[in-house]
């Protein structure tokens, strides 16, 4: 694999810490050369020419406390000769952030990114920052899916056992237990025939409403519950 061959050019520490995912590998192989930062496969790609001894990057969402160092990428021809080389750093896109501001550290000097025309002045800190705007996150909600199943989403404290109950289970909350797919997000997909249903999420014996669904109703005992209509 290209990635396996490439990591041999990195330090042992970098090779051990480099992400080992298909998306990262694809993003790495797609780098064509030095350019303005761009987004690829849920990563932000930063590049720089080989004109310095070291290049680091620090981000505002980390309060500039951590410097991440660029790595050197070398491209080889058929006869093993180096055809091009440049520095790169690949960062995972942070969640719940619409803009990433950053500064480069080139041979120990803090500066904006000369390849990025997007610059904003930080009046409080009295320096300029380069930035890249991120695409808006799609908010996952309870809804009917194209495959006919109904997708339920619950946001709650991580590490809990969250269950789903409603008129489709005769309010038995022990039939469906939701799965925590990422910290604090629980989901379950179930088949429902067309109709209007009332439901709640349960933590232990305590019911609570679905915050991703604004539709409400009342249970027979007068509790406020969530409501969904399946067409």
The percent range for helix content is under 10%
SS element count, helices: 3
From the alpha-carbon coordinates, what is the Rg to the nearest angstrom?
A: 25 Å
Per DSSP E runs of 2 or more residues, the count of β-strands stands at 20
Percent strand: over 45%
Q: Kindly state the mean pLDDT as a whole number?
A: 88
**Rough outline:** elongated
Low-confidence stretches: 1-20
Report on the biggest sheet. 6 strands, antiparallel
Would you tell me the structural class of the helices and strands? Answer: mainly beta
Secondary-structure element sequence?
A: HHHEEEEEEEEEEEEEEEEEEEE
N-to-C span = 48 Å
Describe the structure.
It is built from 3 helices and 20 strands. The strands form 4 sheets. Strands 3, 4, 7, 8, 9 and 10 form a 6-stranded antiparallel β-sheet that branches. The chain has 231 residues and is mostly beta strands. The longest helix is centred in the N-terminal third of the chain and has 9 residues, at 22-30. Helices cover 9% and strands 45% of the residues. It is elongated and about 70 Å long. Mean pLDDT is 88; it is low at 1-20.
Task: Quickly list its features.
231 residues; mainly beta; six-stranded antiparallel sheet; elongated
What's the topology here?
Elements: H1 2-6, H2 12-17, H3 22-30, E1 38-40, E2 43-49, E3 55-59, E4 68-69, E5 71-76, E6 82-92, E7 99-106, E8 109-111, E9 119-122, E10 127-133, E11 143-144, E12 149-155, E13 162-166, E14 176-177, E15 179-182, E16 185-191, E17 195-203, E18 206-208, E19 216-218, E20 224-230
């Amino acid at each position: 694999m290209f990635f396996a061959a490439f990591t041999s050019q990195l330090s042992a520490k970098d090779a051990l810490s480099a992400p080992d995912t298909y998306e990262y590998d694809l993003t790495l192989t797609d780098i064509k050369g030095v350019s303005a930062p761009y987004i690829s496969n849920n990563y932000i790609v930063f590049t720089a020419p080989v004109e310095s001894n070291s290049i680091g990057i620090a981000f505002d969402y980390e309060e500039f406390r951590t410097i991440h160092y660029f790595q050197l990428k070398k491209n080889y021809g058929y006869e093993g000769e180096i055809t091009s080389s440049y520095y790169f750093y690949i960062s995972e896109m942070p969640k719940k952030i619409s803009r990433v501001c950053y500064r480069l550290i080139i041979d120990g000097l803090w500066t904006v990114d000369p390849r990025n025309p997007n610059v904003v002045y930080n009046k409080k800190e009295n320096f300029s920052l380069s930035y890249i705007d991120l695409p808006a996150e799609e908010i996952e909600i309870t809804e009917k899916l194209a495959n006919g199943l109904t997708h339920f989403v619950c946001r709650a404290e991580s590490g809990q056992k969250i269950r789903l109950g409603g008129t489709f289970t005769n309010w038995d909350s022990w039939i469906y237990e939701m799965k925590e797919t990422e910290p604090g997000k629980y989901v379950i997909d179930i088949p429902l025939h067309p109709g209007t249903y009332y439901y709640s999420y349960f933590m232990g014996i305590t019911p609570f409403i679905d915050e991703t669904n604004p539709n409400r109703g009342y249970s027979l005992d007068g509790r406020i519950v969530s409501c969904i209509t399946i067409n």
